[in-house]
Amino acid sequence: MSSDEINILHLSDLHFNGKNSLEEHPTLYAQRNITFSSLLDTLKDLDENWKPNIIVISGDIGFQGITEDYKLAKEFLSNLLKILNLSPDRLIICAGNHDLNRNETKRKKLPSSAVGADSCLKIENLDKLINPFTNFIAFLKELGVSPLLIGNQKHYLVGVKAILGLKFVILNSSWFAYGDNSRNLWLGKSQLELLESNKQIPHPSNYNESDIIIAVFHHPRAYFSEYEFAGYEGRLGAYNFLAKRSHIILSGHIHSEQIEEPDRIHDSAWLFLAGASYYSNTYINSFSILKINKEARNVTYRIFQFNPYESIWESKFSEHSYSLIKESLPVLGEESQKLLDLFQYSCSPGNLNEQEIKQIHLFLDKINELLDDPFYIIKEKYYPNIWKIGIIINKRTEDFYIRYSLMAISWELNISSIIVIPS
After folding, report:
1. pTM metric for this prediction
2. Mean pLDDT over the full length of the chain
């Protein structure tokens, strides 16, 4: 294997359930042991070209976030590290919804808005949210996993860690994953701002020159609040904020037996979604290995799926190599310079009343929300380098309608999202 190539073993949703004791449920233990013993044998027999250098687990190590879950997990991961001849500092582990102790979530209030979530998830406020993850954190410490760094603070649930020239951004999507809140989650915009301020994640303008950034968190897109994607009152949703600053996103939670090809978000991060590495003995459990070439800035991968009929893991190669380079494209082609020339003669929407401005902002918010998700493919294809869509008001008609055209605002432009052309 070339020195420029790094192999990442991606596991997710291991679901170690310590509440079921060996004495009371020997069959469950035997079934799980068959699957994991075969997994270890598969990794042990891998060609050297695919032997993992780093292990990433994207959440749900336990089942109920209790100490007994992590005793089982520690035993398995200790054997895994031994077989791969790796030390615990090669482990990247994020929390999942099964890693919080729900007995510690009672009477906790959920944020009702983006502003509330951003405030709750400030690094200075996280101590109020830590209790449900106490057993998970203790497990990481006992396993010998080193803490992450966010700003100048050490943390076990959020932060960055550099390994072999790759930079991992670990976030906790499960802060509020309890009760009936499973599809209204928040990623932590304030944490990402702290990381960018401390140059621990790159600005999008440095995408092709920065270290390769790999973001790790548990939940896929469908489980987050809509405001983690849509721009609103100057706040870019945390998911899209991170995607524009990452090359790869590793997530889990979906438990799908059919693993799809990765999806590219905003012409930036490739999203690799993992199925469960262990759900049951009759389930097609899975894991994958990503081969990253730091020099060529690309990634290829293999998926391994458990065949429950023969109790073996079967492999298939990806047919594609995925580029980690963002193509440099003009925002509006030849029209971009015309727009720039136009802006210096334009003015702010001072001749519109407050209600009209509000209605136009709501209109723009809806357009940008749709382009961020679910119609992000349109944005990626036709406007790959823009921040958001704005509006140029050309003329107000006598019957109080306005004539307008939409404009693409790039990240580099510091202009209003509403431009009024003077009469």
Report:
1. 0.78
2. 86
